[in-house]
Amino acid sequence: MSRTLFFFLILAVSIIALIFRVSLLSERPMHGDEAVNAVKVAELIEGGGYKYDPYEYHGPSLNYFILIGSWFFGVDSIVDLNEQFLRLLPVVFGFFLLFLVCMLRGALGRDAILFSIVLIAVSPAMVFYSRYFIHELILVFFTMTFIIGGYFYFKSPKVYWVLLVGVSLGLMHATKETFVIALGSIGLGLLLLCAQSNKKQRLDFLKRISIVHLFLALVTAAVVSIVFFSSFFSNPKGVVDSISTFSTYADRAENSIHTHPWYFYFKLLFFYSFSDGPFFSEWVVLFLSLVGIVFAFKKGGEIGDPLFIRFIAYFTISMIAVYSILPYKTPWCLLGFYCGMLLLSGVGAAQLIRLKSRALRLISIVIIFLGVLHLGQQAYYLNYKYFFDSRNPHVYGHTSLDVPKIVDKIKLMASVGSDNKPLRIQVYCPESDYWPLPWYLRGYQVEYGDAVSKDTPPAPIILIQPSMEDALMHKLYELPPPGQRELYMHLFYDVDDGTVDIMELRPSVELVGFVSRSLFEKYLQKDIKKLEGGP
To answer: Burial letters for 118-133: b for 16+ Cβ neighbours within 10 Å, e otherwise?
Structure first.
């Protein structure tokens, strides 16, 4: 394959990858985690600063990267934020991951790189999480820059590779606490590589490591980490918290509602079917990555750097083992090892098309072609048809499409409010389980609580979970003195058929809404005027 053809194919694949990642970014409702991240980002953008929380929300890198974007686009408040702007951040990291992989042409071989990029471009999981405003893809990106920097350092021990390694390590730490799993897997991969090498190879490996360079990399990583966790030196305690947090996450790994069996990630990626939905499987990645692992340990490989390919195999297998053993599992964590699988898949595909048997080469080409087409088809279904649906393997406690409808109804009610005052809203949910409503109700005057408050007067609009309805009726009709009680109507009352619609925050979590009779009558009057052609 000529260099010109190679770069043309990379460009074509990149365009396809970009189309998959940027199309209809705001269609999927914000997941609760995305909404939490968005509200935390808004605090920073609005000048409220940032303080690392060792118990929730993960590292600060996501917040500060969005802050940089807000400077360019003139976003300075939560009202100016929107789903598309926020999700462009993972899009950028997911898209540039393709070009990052291109840097490994010498390590994996040109054909392997091309196949890896094709698979990353259309992988349903990679596309889905490239459109998801969480930390995971940023962590994967900087894990790759760390590995790439280390590889090139061993090829040519220059200071700029040392700095890349240090900055990458610092940003891995500043992104998410689970960076220790990636770092441990990298270390284990190197140890295993040394263990199976001969004495001469081990000595050569050790000679390439400069103590001065190692110290410089660690200092660089520490500086980057301290700058981020200290909120640019305004919160020194954040640095201490970034270390103490590991006790919190160690406990959470064993005691959490997110406990799943060891095969959880494999089921999502390769054997998933729910209810009446289709069967989802990125089977071609599983097949090709296994082929890549076989060739990684086969002597006399024809492509790439055999030692590096073997290291990727060790790294990926280690990551899979750790994430499978840990009881705590959330779908997006699979990206940590899946990127390695996709690289090995590229190696496997490149080896298969080089088989000596013409018949086997032809069969391999057909399998790879059909597999890539199948990935593209699934990427379309997961991201544009089942984007909030439990039939999608990567949908996890996701926000219902009812939430945007609820917000639209509230906007209509707010438009008929009096005196141009901000509409007051009260949201009461057990254990503060009301996310992502704080994101969707931004711009309104909202009181949130995990119990119905007896101390504040009822707002014109009240949202609760059904279990709190008795407490709310007590607040509305028993606490106020006679003559000061206002009747409330169901917010989700359907005027056309006279029924009350059932609304869900997410699957199995219902919301009940109430609106004061005075506001509801104004809304009906305005609606009638519109039907009659009035203003």
So the answer is: bbbbbbbbbbbbbbbb
What does pTM read for this prediction?
0.92
Q: Are residues 374 and 447 in the same domain?
A: no
Rounded Cα distance, 163 and 473, in Å: 62
pLDDT interval class at 158 (50, 70, 90): very high
Structure tokens at 369: 């072609």
Question: Exposed, middle or buried: residue 70 (CB in 10 Å: 0-12, 13-18, 19+)?
Answer: buried
Mapping DSSP onto H, E and C, the string for 399-427 reads CCCHHHHHHHHHHHHHCCCCCCCCCEEEE
The backbone region for 309, taken as left when phi is positive above 0, alpha when psi lies in -120 to 50, beta otherwise, is alpha
Tell me: the pLDDT tens digits for 468-521?
Answer: 999 999 999 988 888 788 899 998 877 667 778 889 998 889 999 999 998 888
User: What's the one-letter identity of residue 511?
Assistant: L
Separation CA 420–CA 411 (nearest Å): 13
Q: 220 and 136 share a domain?
A: yes
| Cα pseudo-dihedral 20, 23, 24, 25, rounded to 10 | 80
Q: Which of 385, 504, 513, 426 is nearest to 32 (CA)?
A: 504
- Domain for residue 394, yes or no? no
User: What is the model's pLDDT at position 203?
Assistant: 83
Q: What is the pLDDT of residue 292?
A: 96
Residue 353 has pLDDT above 60, yes or no: yes
Are both 409 and 378 inside the same structural domain?
A: no
- Helix, strand or coil, per DSSP, at residue 299: coil
**Which ranges of 55-178 would DSSP assign to H, the alpha helix?**
61-73, 83-102, 105-108, 110-122, 124-129, 136-155, 159-173
Q: What average pLDDT score do residues 266-288 get?
A: 94
Residue 221 — pLDDT band, cuts 50, 70, 90? very high
108 part of a folded domain: yes
Give the tokens for residue 416: 């008929």
Q: What would the pLDDT profile of 114-128 be if each residue is shown by its tens digit?
A: 999 999 999 999 999
Give me the number of domains the chain comprises: 2
**How far apart are alpha carbons 449 and 456 in whole angstroms?**
11
Strands 424-428 and 461-464: parallel
Domain membership flag for residue 164 = yes
What is the extent of the structural domain holding 142?
3-384
Residue 283 has what pLDDT?
Answer: 97
228 and 346 co-located in one domain: yes
